[in-house]
Design a protein that fits this description.
With 394 residues, this protein is α/β, with parallel strands linked by helices. Helix content is 35%, strand content 13%. It contains 15 helices and nine strands. Strands 1-2-3-4-5-6-8-9 form an eight-stranded parallel barrel, surrounded by five helices. Helix 14 links the parallel strand 8 and strand 9. It is globular, with a radius of gyration of 19 Å. InterPro entries: GH (IPR017853), GH10 (IPR044846), GH10_dom (IPR001000). Keywords: Carbohydrate metabolism, Glycosidase, Hydrolase, Polysaccharide degradation. It comes from Apiospora saccharicola.
Length: 394
């Protein structure tokens, strides 16, 4: 893990109203850049409201934890005009509208009450993004920090924002071994853990029934070799936790799409994508209601590139699911050609319904020094943004 990531993880927990450095749900997405040599294991539990974080270079993932305020960068400038081929700025006039015109359902970003309070960031969400994924507000430690004691303030705020601004919501995430309260980790009885999972998912999904398009039901449950991760859920329940979680989610909202979300699925030949693909086939054949697979899409450095993303999605499209989505996209240094390849891959795979970036601008990224997003620290569109607009405008 990068030294900057360690500092981020150790920073005091900010209030919900402060902008978060969004750590992708992939607390395990390999973070690899030139500075990754400063890697250290920060998988210490982040039981406070956290930001999702892509997986780190080692097998030990870093927790998604709340970041410190990024207001200094956020206040520096309002978003500039879009490139010449893009529609004029305004609600629904950016990448989301162009992507939908190509037959896709949305172009989205991670967001929460804190980040949306940054005016230039919110302006870009309004103009270019049609979907929002909660950074932290729907994670277990934020919603149910103590058993059967639920707090929906942050998640309610995001869902209300989405309704007011005509945005789709992707629920993230119901079951993840990070940002998991200690009381859950200490459960050793099968019947008790089953009941706890069912209760948590029933309360959370049921509260937003009909308001959330898709849920990341389970998140980062696989090792790099394609086996199931060693965590409280597998230790106590084996692989049956997957059935328990998906059946509870389906019962709570039969209309929502239910996903497995995972990092490092961007290569057709990868052992993780092969292992996940085989498990999903088996689980669907057994009647577990899995609708989709989310490819997190943390790319660059020691992470995968976009070169094989289309092939990876083609493999997963044959697993029995009905949808695929790119759920946490960021690319180190935001090379225009890599962003274009990601969009081309989704466009080429009919089952790919949308793309979500993990954050809006580099000022609010969980990797601010690696500049991985489409908008810079001043909230201005980068060359990668212009290249995507040009692709979608053809």
């Amino acid at each position: 893990m990068k030294a900057s990531t360690i500092a981020y993880l150790l920073a005091p927990l900010g209030a919900m109203a402060s902008p978060c450095k969004h750590r992708p749900s992939s607390s395990t997405a390999v973070v690899s850049s030139a500075s990754a040599s400063a890697s250290a294991s920060a998988s210490a539990s982040a039981t406070a409201i956290a930001t999702s974080a892509p997986t780190l270079p080692t097998a030990v993932p870093t927790p998604e934890v709340p970041a410190t305020s990024a207001t200094s960068a956020a206040s520096s400038a309002a978003p500039s005009a879009t490139p010449s081929k893009a529609p004029a700025p305004g609600p629904g006039a950016g990448i989301d509208a162009l992507f939908k015109a190509k037959g896709k359902q949305y172009f989205g970003t991670s967001a929460d009450q804190g980040s949306l309070s940054v005016k230039p960031l919110e302006a870009l969400v309004e103009s270019d993004f049609g979907q929002v994924t909660p950074e932290n507000s729907m994670k277990w430690d934020a919603i149910e920090p103590r058993q059967d004691s639920f707090s929906f303030q942050g998640s309610d705020a995001l869902v209300s924002y989405a309704k007011e601004h005509n945005k789709i919501v992707r629920g993230h995430t119901l079951l993840w071994y990070q940002q998991l309260p200690q009381w859950v980790k200490q459960i050793t009885d099968k019947a008790e853990l089953t009941k706890v999972i069912q209760n948590h998912i029933t309360k959370v999904v049921g509260r937003y029934k009909g308001q959330i398009k898709a849920w990341d039901v389970v998140n980062e449950i696989f090792n790099e070799d394609g086996t199931l991760r060693d965590m409280v859920f597998t230790q106590v329940l084996g692989e049956d936790f997957v059935r328990i979680a998906f059946e509870a989610a389906r019962a709570a909202d039969p209309g929502a799409k239910l996903y497995i979300n995972e990092y490092h699925l961007e290569s057709k030949s990868g052992t993780k994508v092969t292992g996940l693909n085989n498990y999903v086939k088996k689980w669907i054949a057994a009647g577990i209601p899995i609708d989709g697979v989310g490819l997190q899409g943390h790319l660059g450095g020691s992470n995968p590139t976009a070169a094989e993303m289309k092939d990876g999605m083609e493999l997963l499209s044959k697993s029995g699911v009905t949808e695929l989505a790119i759920t946490e996209l960021d690319i180190l240094n935001a090379p225009a050609d890599e962003y274009v390849k990601v969009f081309e891959a989704c466009l080429a795979i009919e089952m790919c319904v949308g793309i979500t970036t993990w954050g809006v601008s580099d000022a609010n990224s969980w990797l601010p020094k690696d500049n991985p997003l489409l908008f810079d620290h001043q909230y201005k569109p980068k060359d990668a943004y212009k290249a995507v607009v040009e692709l979608l405008s053809k």
